[in-house]
């Protein structure tokens, strides 16, 4: 299925937490959802019951459509979970739809954002580095570091890493 569905939108509609958990597990384990596949999960479950879907929503091109249970005043909220966020963090509220209003965006994030080309919240990564032909290590004085010194690396690879970190917005 993954090989023939490399550029599609998958819609999953369910209010059954065990089904959603199984779908999330097998989608990630079986690599069903590649980067170009869009996933829309539609449910009436509250956000508190969807914490187990954190990995699915943060690691894939996914959005959650939370549909209200009250038909006369139906309200639908569209959420997105950004990569490298904490599992207990609230998803971003992207848009809102009600009977009274058309779809209104509540953030700067578009539908199915390209969340893997640039990090919106500037995560911090630890990058291992080995001193060798292209890099040299230097101890630098630093008042903010324990021991008053900080190990830095110099060379073309560190300049490339700095360039990539600025482009992708990570430190």
TrEMBL record:
Task: Recite the UniProt keywords alphabetically.
Answer: Receptor
- Spell out the protein name for this chain: Putative variant ionotropic glutamate receptor-like 22
Q: Which organism is it from?
A: Homarus americanus
């Amino acid at each position: 299925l993954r090989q023939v569905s490399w550029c599609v939108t998958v819609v999953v509609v369910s209010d059954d937490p065990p089904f959603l958990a199984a779908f999330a597990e097998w989608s990630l384990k079986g690599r069903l959802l590649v980067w170009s596949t869009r996933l829309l999960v539609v449910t009436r479950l509250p956000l508190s019951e969807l914490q187990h879907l954190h990995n699915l929503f943060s690691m894939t091109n996914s959005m959650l459509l939370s549909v209200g249970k009250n038909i006369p005043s139906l309200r639908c909220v569209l959420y997105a979970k950004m990569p490298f966020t904490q599992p207990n963090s609230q998803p971003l509220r992207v848009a809102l739809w009600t009977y009274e209003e058309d779809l209104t965006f509540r953030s700067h994030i578009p539908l199915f954002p390209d969340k893997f080309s640039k990090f919106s919240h500037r995560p911090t990564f630890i990058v291992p580095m080995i001193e060798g032909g292209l890099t040299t290590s230097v101890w630098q004085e630093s008042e903010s570091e324990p021991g008053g010194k900080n190990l830095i690396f110099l060379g073309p690879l560190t300049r490339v890493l700095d360039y990539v970190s600025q482009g992708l917005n990570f430190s």
